[in-house]
Amino acid sequence: MADFAAGDQVRTTRFDPPHHCRLPRYVRGAAGTVIEQQGSHPLADDRARGIPAEPEPVYTVRFLARELFGSGDHGVTVDIWESHLSPMKGQDR
Predict the structure, then answer these.
(1) Number of separate domains in the chain
(2) Structural domain span for residue 18
(3) Residue 2 lies in a domain
(4) Collapsing DSSP states into helix, strand and coil, what is residue 90?
(5) What mean pLDDT is predicted for residues 65-72?
(6) Confidence grade of residue 61 (pLDDT, cut at 50, 70, 90)
(7) What is the largest CA-CA distance in the chain?
(8) pLDDT band per the 50, 70, 90 thresholds, residue 22
C-alpha cells in the first residue's frame, strides 16, 4: 500500500550514498508535492548493486524551481521511490 497520495507535501532524503542512487542530487532535502503514484517498482538503487529489491511505490513529485535552484517561477517533476520520501511535519500518514 502506498504511503502518499496526490496533494501530500513531502521532503526528500538528504542521504548521499557511496553507490548508485536514483534520487537526483539537486532534489535531495527539498520539499515538494506528490502529483500521482506511478505504480510499484523494485528500487533501482539496490538492483544496480545486485541486491534483490521488493517493489515499492514510485511517485511523481513536483518541486518549485525556487525551492531547488533559488529562483524561477516554474515547477520541476521527478519520479521518486517511496523510500526516498518522508511526510512534511503536520501531516499524518
Answers:
(1) 1
(2) 9-87
(3) no
(4) coil
(5) 94
(6) very high
(7) 40
(8) confident
* CATH number, domain containing residue 18: 2.30.30.50
Task: Give the H/E segment covering residue 42.
Answer: strand 31-42
Task: Look up residue 26 and give its three cell numbers.
Answer: 539537486
Q: Decide if 3 is inside a domain.
A: no
In a domain, 92, yes or no: no
Structure-block grid coordinates of residue 62: 513536483
| Contacting residues for 15 by C-beta, under 8 A, at least 6 apart | 21, 23, 28, 84
For the chain, the distance separating the N- and C-terminal CA atoms, rounded to the nearest angstrom, is 12
Q: What's the sign of the alpha-carbon dihedral 39, 43, 47, 50?
A: negative
Whether residue 30 contacts residue 89, with contact meaning beta carbons closer than 8 Å, is answered with no
